[in-house]
Amino acid sequence: MLHSNDNPPTDNSDSNLSVKDSFELQRSVVLGCGAYLPERVLTNTELSTRIDTSDEWIRKRTGIEQRHIAADGELTSDLAAAASRRALAAAGVAADEVDLIVLATSTPDNTFPATSTRVQAMLGIKQGVAFDVQAVCSGFVYALSVADNMLRLGQARTALVIGAEVFSRILDWKDRSTCVLFGDGAGAVVLRAMAPQNDSNARGILSTHLFSDGAYYDSLYVDGGPASTGTAGFIRMDGKEVFRQAVNLMSSAVETAVAHNGMSVSDIDLLVPHQANIRIIDGIGRRLGVAGERVVVTVQGQANTSAATIPLALTAAQDDKRIHPGDIVALCALGGGFAWGSALIRW
Ligand code: ACO
């Protein structure tokens, strides 16, 4: 497990990072969020005209009613740039203030370069660094953790953290056990490094906790790739195994986060879990004892957009005014690998 917190490293003598001389850690504050969903909506009913499924089966097992599908020629970078522009507008930050872009995706435009570098160019950003993070559905939490740590250490000041996916391109549309579950979309969050404050109620990311266990590699994977087949491949999944582990691992990641910060689950104002399936989301809420009104749910209208679900859900909560400065917001996600994690934020 990896985690970040407010304790400065005691010995930096071996560090080869370009960081501030002083280890007086900054704090990453969320300034705003934005989202983009492709225009085309594919309903369960329409899907049921193509494959042997039904609106009733999909709703009952997953809570999903519809998903958005990228247009031909619409790429992950297009979705990411659109979400980023909205996040920057919500944050009141100009693109040329951004000096770090971390993009979580498992559906990059090309095998390389990093899709984030194309987003950087699309936004007209000339400075700083841009790179991608690949942790499938937990990618946004991983990207947030990486960006948070870089901001804390003074390696950057203003970060765009993006989750963007076009999973429709890696779905086997003849496999009803997977193709009904996913959709396309993007969300982005703007973070700003703020000077440390002694105030225990200071806003910012309080901690991030990351975990992975490669023993589950074959439970959820894509059966292609540049090194194995030379093709992009399609999603393959042991749905029951994913389901079994998801509630348990995401819930314990949240429990670890609150305990680490000397809090309890009752301190959480808003829980924003990865949006894979309403039964998984409800299971996490039940296990943690977080009432439904404190859990953000968007899966019904968007399906599982992998790394994009959390920033999409955060944007929905921001736009609905369900999330307020000072709120304790808990994020958790799990995806292929398995890779999973949590973040605790004082909004
Ligand atoms: N429509 C109709 N019937 C279907 C469909 C479908 N789309 N898909 C499967 N079925 C059938 C199966 O063929 C099976 O039929 P059978 O009994 O005649 O063999 C029957 O429904 C039951 O299938 P199960 O796989 O046992 O269904 P289950 O109750 O496990 O639900 C589901 C499947 C929804 C995938 C569930 O296992 C699940 O939600 N797993 C979590 C997977 C997930 O969310 N993955 C996302 C990526 S990981 C993440 O983001 C956390």
**What would you say the CATH architecture of the largest domain is?**
3-Layer(aba) Sandwich
* Morphology call: globular
Oligomer: single chain
**Name of the level-1 CATH class of the largest domain:** Alpha Beta
Helical percent range? 25-40%
Task: Report the span from N to C terminus.
Answer: 24 Å
Q: Describe the strand arrangement of the main beta sheet, using strand numbers.
A: 1-9-14-13-12
Write structural notes for this entry:
This protein folds into 2 domains: 179 residues, Thiolase/Chalcone synthase (Peroxisomal Thiolase, Chain A, domain 1, 3-Layer(aba) Sandwich); 143 residues, Peroxisomal Thiolase, Chain A, domain 1, CATH 3.40.47. A 5-stranded mixed β-sheet has the order 1-9-14-13-12, with helices on both faces. Strands 2-8-7-5-6 form a 5-stranded mixed β-sheet, sandwiched between helices. With 347 residues, the protein is α+β, with helices and mostly antiparallel strands. 29% of the residues lie in helices and 25% in strands. Helix 3 packs across helix 4 and helix 7 packs parallel to helix 8. Strand 13 and strand 14 form a beta hairpin. The chain binds acetyl coenzyme *A (ACO). The site of acetyl coenzyme *A (ACO) has 23 residues, from helix 2, helix 6, helix 7 and strand 13.
